[in-house]
Amino acid sequence: MTLSLTRRAALAGAASLPLAAAAASTVSAGGHGGKAAMPNARSFKLGSFGVTTLLDGSFPRDGVKDIFGGNVDQAEFESVSADNFIPSDMAQFYFTPTLVDIGPDLVLFDTGLGQGGIAATLGDAGVTPDAVTVVVLTHMHPEHIGGLMTDGTPTFPNKRYVTGRVEYDTWLTTGSNRITDLMAKNVTPLADKMTFIEDGQSVVSGVTAMAAFGHTPGHMTYMLESDDAQLVLTADLANHYIWPFANPDWHTSFDSDKVAATASRRNVLGMLATDRVPMIGYHMPFPAAGFVEARGDGFRFVLVGYQLMG
Predict the structure, then answer these.
(1) How many domains does the chain fold into?
(2) For 197-250, how does the pLDDT look when each residue is reduced to its tens digit (9 = 90+)?
(3) DSSP structure string for 69-109
(4) Residue 1's pLDDT band (boundaries 50, 70, 90)?
(5) How far apart are the C-alpha atoms of 96 and 94, rounded to whole Å?
(6) Is 113 within the bounds of a domain?
(7) In whole angstroms, how far apart are CA 159 and each of 39, 97, 280?
(8) What is the CA radius of gyration of the chain?
(9) Structural domain includes residue 50
(10) How many other β-carbons are positioned within 10 Å of the β-carbon of residue 101?
(11) Nearest CA to 62 among 93, 85, 94?
(12) pLDDT, tens only, 264-296
């Protein structure tokens, strides 16, 4: 597997930049003109694919024991937190869509919170919304479908949309008012442009859907493969970089089916650890990319440092 840091492949003459570089760093925007500051976009090469993570937003949240440790006692939750040098009463949340340039297509995975951030972060990567050719929705939670519309009009007009059939059909029939209302506003108006896929089917060549149900009824992860290199977009398989990794059996309140979510975590994280395949997680600390190590009965998320540099 060859992984080297670069700007997205279509941006000719791009300069290498570590994923952990300072926000003030700049890179060449190539054919998109001039120099572009990249405080909220980080890019690297996966085989012949260009992969860019886009920070749509970040904020702190308290009450995290109830979110990430609903089935464990307070003392255990505090002990695991202390062992990992994090507080047990708050967490920083990140929201990170991913853009994949495969050459003929520019594929965006998830669309952010819907507060204008996705267009801004695409701009940081030297891309305009009309350049995106395919929009993939990993699942229907609001922070993933929020950016589909801007002021009531499609953010990505006349594009192809892809989502899991189980996810779409289940929410339409049994979803919560909050999610089905937002779907009616942002997703169903695009249904005539949408392709509904199943586990194992391809979005485009080199991008394969992998069912990881539990977080939502039809939650999907995606395997990227190019020139013998692999990377998995894990979406919301794990919503924090410590608690669901170290203890996959701990209940996360955001998971609709706790048992299925645990099974999916163990299955996907086990594969990533065994095969040493990197991942990008939607809620991981930005730039959201890293590796998974088996540790005891659980796992450890290893945030990228310079491993993905060219």
Answers:
(1) 1
(2) 999 999 999 999 999 999 999 999 999 999 999 999 999 999 999 999 999 999
(3) -TTS-HHHHHHHHHHTT--SSEEEEEE--EEEE-SS-EEEE
(4) very low
(5) 6
(6) yes
(7) 27, 17, 24
(8) 18
(9) yes
(10) 24
(11) 93
(12) 999 999 999 999 999 999 999 999 999 999 999
Write the DSSP string, 20-87.
Answer: T--TT-EEE-GGG-SEEE-SSEEEEEETTEEEEEE--EEEEEE-HHHHH-TTS-HHHHHHHHHHTT--
pTM attached to this predicted model: 0.86
pLDDT digits (tens, 9 = 90+) for 88-142: 999 999 999 999 999 999 999 999 999 888 999 999 999 999 999 999 999 999 9
State yes or no: pLDDT of 10 exceeds 50.
no
Cα-based angle 187, 192, 195 (whole degrees, multiple of 5): 80
- Where in the sequence is the domain holding 202, given as residue range(s)? 3-303
**CA distance linking residue 233 with residue 222, whole number of Å:** 5
Q: For position 183, which CATH number holds? A: 3.60.15.10
Q: Which of 159, 152, 147 is nearest to 54 (CA)?
A: 147
Q: Which two tokens stand for residue 301?
A: 């998320």
In-domain check, residue 308? no
pLDDT digits (tens, 9 = 90+) for 288-299: 999 999 999 999
Q: What is the pLDDT of residue 307?
A: 66
Residue 309 inside a domain? The answer is no
Q: How many residues does the chain have?
A: 310
Residue type, 277: V
User: What torsion do the CA atoms of 165, 168, 169, 174 make, to the nearest 10 degrees?
Assistant: 150
The span from the CA of 288 to the CA of 241, in Å, is 9
Token match 């024991």: residue? 65
Q: What is the pLDDT of residue 105?
A: 96
